[in-house]
């Protein structure tokens, strides 16, 4: 059973739902994240401001996911780092999708930074999550070209169309283990 963490639009969450994967819970660090509206399963927001600190928020979020029966957590555009209070509850069972060929261009501004660097090839990465910024072991990667005419929007859209196929494929494999 899968839990998905989101902060934004939720197109990767939608890809998981469209693939028929067993998503039972969706959580966000932002109450107004549009992604929350895509979920027809249990959905909840865990805003940092509602907790004494990040560890307390992460422990509450992990506890809630556990109550929903979640065994595998997918970060689909979740924009906060996770602390051990969360990660220790789901050992080697938290995956993230990122719009670059990691370990190149980790972080929240990967698309803009790749354009600024003038690279010819970008891509999508699905990886296991540790405490670092986009730093866990890579599970799958696929390349996309960067075109001279690209804007952040056009490049991100090209990467996302790969993410929407690659992420459900990897998650399906992990569920089958
Ligand atoms: C994706 O590009 C993902 O790689 C990154 O954040 C974006 C999320 O997009 N971590 P969406 O919310 O799934 O549309």
Describe the structure.
The chain has 177 residues and is an alpha/beta fold. The chain has a single domain (2-176), classed as Formyl transferase, N-terminal domain (Rossmann fold, 3-Layer(aba) Sandwich). 33% of the residues lie in helices and 23% in strands. The chain has 5 helices and 7 strands; from the N terminus they run βαββαβαβαββα. The protein has a 7-stranded mixed beta sheet with strand order 3-2-1-4-5-6-7, with helices on one face. α1 packs parallel to α5 (152-176). The model has no long low-confidence stretch (mean pLDDT 97).
Helix and strand topology:
Blueprint: E1 2-6, H1 11-18, E2 23-28, E3 42-45, H2 54-67, E4 72-75, H3 84-87, E5 94-98, H4 110-117, E6 121-128, E7 138-145, H5 152-176
Parallel strand pairs: 1-2, 1-4, 2-3, 4-5
Antiparallel strand pairs: 5-6, 6-7
Helix pairs in contact: 1-5
Jot down its keywords.
about 180 residues, alpha/beta, 7-stranded mixed sheet, about 35% helix, binds 5-O-phosphono-beta-D-ribofuranosylamine
State which percent range the strand residues make up: 15-25%
CATH topology: Rossmann fold
- Describe the strand arrangement of the main beta sheet, using strand numbers: 3-2-1-4-5-6-7
Number of helices: 5
Question: What structural category characterises the helix and strand content?
Answer: alpha/beta
Q: What is bound: which ligands?
A: 5-O-phosphono-beta-D-ribofuranosylamine
Q: Give the number of DSSP strands.
A: 7
Q: What's the overall geometry?
A: globular
Report the C-alpha radius of gyration, rounded. Answer: 16 Å
Q: In oligomeric terms, what are we looking at?
A: single chain
Give the N-terminus to C-terminus distance in angstroms.
12 Å
Number of domains: 1
What can be said about the biggest beta sheet? 7 strands, mixed
Output mean pLDDT: 97
Relevant CATH superfamily: Formyl transferase, N-terminal domain
Order of helices and strands: EHEEHEHEHEEH
């Amino acid at each position: 059973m899968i839990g998905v963490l989101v902060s934004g639009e939720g197109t990767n969450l939608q890809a998981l739902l469209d693939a028929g994967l067993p998503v039972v819970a969706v959580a966000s660090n932002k109450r107004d994240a549009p992604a929350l509206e895509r979920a027809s399963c249990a959905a909840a927001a865990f805003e940092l401001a509602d907790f004494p600190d990040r560890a307390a928020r992460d422990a509450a979020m992990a506890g809630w996911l556990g109550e929903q029966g979640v065994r595998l957590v997918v970060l689909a555009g979740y924009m906060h780092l996770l602390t051990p209070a969360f990660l220790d509850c789901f050992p080697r069972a938290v995956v993230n999708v990122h719009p670059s060929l990691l370990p190149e261009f980790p972080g929240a501004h990967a698309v803009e930074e790749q354009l600024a660097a003038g690279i010819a090839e970008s891509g999508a990465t699905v990886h296991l999550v540790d405490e670092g910024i986009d730093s866990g072991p890579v599970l799958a990667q696929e390349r996309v070209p960067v075109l001279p005419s690209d804007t952040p929007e056009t490049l991100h859209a090209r990467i996302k169309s790969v993410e929407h196929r690659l992420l459900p494929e990897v998650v399906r494999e992990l569920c089958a283990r």
